[in-house]
UniProtKB/TrEMBL annotation:
This is Undecaprenyl-diphosphatase. SUPFAM superfamilies: Acid phosphatase/Vanadium-dependent haloperoxidase. Keywords: Membrane, Transmembrane, Transmembrane helix. Residues 85-196 form the Phosphatidic acid phosphatase type 2/haloperoxidase domain. Signal peptide: none annotated. It comes from the Bacteria. InterPro entries: PAP2/HPO (IPR000326), PAP2/HPO_sf (IPR036938). The chain crosses the membrane at residues 7-30, 61-79, 86-106, 126-147, 154-171, 177-199.
Length: 212
């Protein structure tokens, strides 16, 4: 299980680096993708999709991510899984610092369109996507304690659907390019996997001691 998570971590880190280099060098494939995304931004007359997009942006704000982290953390304390509790809370709290630091480093300008939400800082990577991935991932880690394999699969599918809607909302509202959203997804997944692996480190060490 740990080896699988490590490979998944390496893959997502590689993809984030790939998109980071793309943001700095603007290759044709990235420019084409981002230009296509800008054609899907909302029209001011389409209030229905604007409200739906705003909903998904609101429920994946930093406040919601941090609040969810607190709740999940306290539940793990109740389950006597203190290490997992600590890293879930640490991951949720530090996700804002990661996004802010990366935004300052890349300093990418926002799309040159009218945004239907207020925006702060650079465009790359999307902070909302980082929050969305960590939020849904934390809930998956919690519920995987209770769910069987089929239930985990359904929950995972639902989580990816929510994250996908968040990505769509940020592009649709004119706040991000598609590459910003994908960069946020990959680095959010990296951060989630790092916290998950650290939370399981003591468990794996205990297993090795018993085997020896």
């Amino acid at each position: 299980m740990h080896r699988r998570l490590q490979w998944l971590l390496a893959l997502n880190l590689f993809l984030f680096v790939l998109f980071s280099l793309g943001v700095m060098t603007t290759p044709p494939f990235l420019t084409t993708m981002d230009e296509w995304g800008m054609k899907t931004t909302a029209d001011s007359d389409d209030q229905t999709t604007i409200q739906i997009a705003r909903f998904f942006s609101t429920v994946t704000s930093y406040k919601v991510c941090l609040t969810t982290g607190f709740i999940v953390s306290f539940i793990f304390i109740y389950l006597n899984k203190y290490r997992t509790s600590f890293f879930i809370l640490l991951g949720a709290a530090c996700s804002k610092f990661i996004s802010a630091g990366l935004k300052d480093f890349f300093s990418r300008e926002r799309p040159l369109v009218d945004s239907f939400v207020s925006v702060n800082g650079g465009a790359f990577p999307s902070a909302h996507m980082i929050y969305a991935v960590f939020l849904t991932g934390s809930l998956f880690i919690l519920f995987s304690v209770y769910l069987k394999r089929t239930g985990r699969g359904i929950f995972m599918l639902g989580g990816f659907l929510v994250v996908g809607m968040v990505g769509w909302s940020r592009v649709h509202l004119g706040a991000h390019y598609i590459s910003d959203v994908l960069g946020g997804f990959f680095i959010g997944f990296v951060w989630l996997l790092v916290m998950d692996l650290l939370s399981q480190k003591k468990i794996s060490n205990d297993v090795r001691r018993k085997d020896s």
